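Per-residue structure
===
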Amino acid sequence: MSGFPGAHDGRVAVVTGAATGLGQAFARRLARDGATVVAVDVDDAAETVAQIGADGGEAVAEVCDVTSPEAVGALRDRVLGRFGRCDILVNNAGLARPIGWSDLDYETWRRIQGLNVDSMFLTCKAFTPAMADHGFGRVVNVSSNTFGLMLPGWVHYIASKGAVIGLTRGLATDLGGAGVTVNCILPGLTRTANLDALFEGTGMYDRIAAQQAIQRPALPDDIEAAVSFLATEDARWITGQSIVVDGGQLRL
């Protein structure tokens, strides 16, 4: 598998939602490209760490509820205490479940915004000061191509992913002078174990693939290179951008 070998040598990368799915793929890719990875999840990311070790990389697992200011603050203290730095932050933790408008209550709305948006605010507040102190930082936020699509039953999710784009653009402006770039990627529907369980028997993957320029379901390794590239030194002049990585489904 091609990559950017050595691009992240000496860097420390914090990846949220890293126990499974896309987060696991991002963590493994950054490690293969040289980073020491902190795999963060509300569940134990030991399997991700084991896979990175088997690949010849270095990683540690951290259990953290990224919607909790106290928990994120404690995570920051542990990471900086152990490694002395955080160079790359991948905000991947999120929740995607379809809910019709008539069934969407405020409690569910707040839960989605809390995990999909507020968590990114908290982790960025926690880790970007250390990036600025070192004069180098890469923040990659995970949004979704659903922001540009017409999908019934996804109001809560689309709203949260639109907020991620706004957060990315605003934060890029505030941090640009400190050597910190902030970008986001907008993946399309990607085959993971969690989504396989959600969409089993629905034909969803095939229906989405038929709408794409590249007509096959996406896999995590179709998405991960964009994250790793945005974290490189070569991406230093790219910031505040929203990069669609969906095989050509979203046509703006």
User: Anything to note?
Assistant: The radius of gyration is 17 Å. Strands lie at 12-16, 36-41, 58-63, 88-91, 137-142, 180-187, 242-245.
